[in-house]
Amino acid sequence: MGHEAAARGIIATVLNAANAITVARILLVPVIAWYAHVRDYEAAFWLFLLVAASDALDGLIARAFDLRTRFGAIADPLADKLTMLTVTLMLAWQGWLPWWLAVAIVGRDAVIVGGAVAYRALVGRLEIAPTWLSKLNTAVEFTLLATLLAVGAGFADGEPWLPALMWIALATVLASGAQYVWIWGGKAIAARRAA
Description:
The protein is mainly alpha-helical. It has helices spanning about 1-35, 40-65, 70-95, 100-120, 130-155, 160-195.
């Protein structure tokens, strides 16, 4: 009995640790925004990498101990999106990222969120799992934003290949957004017909 109580205590601690990391990531978003705002790209770069590493860590903890929670399922992608969108808009505002790409990135997320809300209202329960194309898009966006921050900090020279990375990011933004519309639009039509 004592071993079971100890095991539950350890699991609760790990669960709380995973969720605490997620909350810390959300709390770091305005800090990253501030450093980007004052053009301290070095600090923004390291914090951006820290948030990405802690994203992997909280996911690893949750999976390793099979501790997925409703809070984590909502807060984890929210932390990712808040970080990526904040850095995207800050870099676009300061001229590091073209506005056409920033609009595409924000527009894709707006379409996905709007589609999810509409699906929930019209069809019912919605469980969105990221597709491989969406994961690729996230990786490309992260690489682009980290590269721009690194260039701003003087760590890298992105001149030769940065334009190509921007076009690749646009392609993955459009393709993954279209994929979500296709998949969930098809599911919504099928559900409405079945009803």
